[in-house]
Amino acid sequence: MNVAVVVGNPKPRSRTYQAASTVAEKLAGRPADLSVDLAELGAAVLDWSDPQVADLVAQIQRSDLVVFASRPTRPPTPAC
């Protein structure tokens, strides 16, 4: 089984990345075959004609299990 992790968080190797990697490992029983940290791709992530992005998309499409994770769009508000 091919396992991939895709993380969208502005901070590279964030807690979101760590959590997604842990979830994938628990589900598959081993570390993911592919881990994509979108923060590391920079502006290229918006250009699907970029060779590196195209290759990553193809690898993700071939995966049997993909864990997608992103940080919340805004931090939670504190309790009143």
Describe this structure as you would to a colleague.
- With 80 residues, the chain is of the alpha/beta class.
- The chain has one domain (3-70).
- The chain contains 3 helices and 3 strands; from the N terminus they run βαβααβ.
- The chain has helices at 15-28, 38-41, 51-61; strands at 3-8, 34-37, 65-70.
- Strands 2-1-3 form a 3-stranded parallel beta sheet, with helices on both faces.
- Strand 1 (3-8), helix 1 and strand 2 (34-37) form a beta-alpha-beta unit.
Low-confidence stretches: none
Strand content: 15-25%
- Helix segment count? 3
Query: What's the alpha carbon Rg, rounded to whole Å?
Result: 14 Å
Content-based structural category: alpha/beta
Give me the count of strands: 3
**Averaged pLDDT:** 93
Helix content: 25-40%
- How many structural domains in the coordinates? 1
Largest sheet: 3 strands, parallel
Order of helices and strands, N to C? EHEHHE
Strand order of the largest sheet: 2-1-3
Backbone shape:
flat
Q: Give the terminus-to-terminus CA distance.
A: 46 Å
Compose a concise summary of this entry.
The protein is flat. It has 80 residues and is of the alpha/beta class.
